[in-house]
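Protein chain data
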Amino acid sequence: MANYLVAGGVFRDLDGNESFTLVCPAPGELPYVMSEGESSYFKLIWQDAHLYQVENDYSLALVAPSAEALQWGVLAPEKVTPDPTLCKKLKTAFKALSA
């Protein structure tokens, strides 16, 4: 799985709570998953999130922080251990890729 990338960061919701969130096409949908070859495309279009590599255990390692996202206060942790909900979304997204 080390060849796959996702976009995300620590975002604040309307109540002021911060949590790590992946970029999705719409609320409640599965996150975007890209191959390494698509990372240059990501860098052109997603300036409000950071690029993460998906590890075999579904943890995420920071690959490319976005300077613009950092200016907007979107934090970019170096390593993210996904909670059960995020892990389930990632697993479901990978199942959809292989279908």
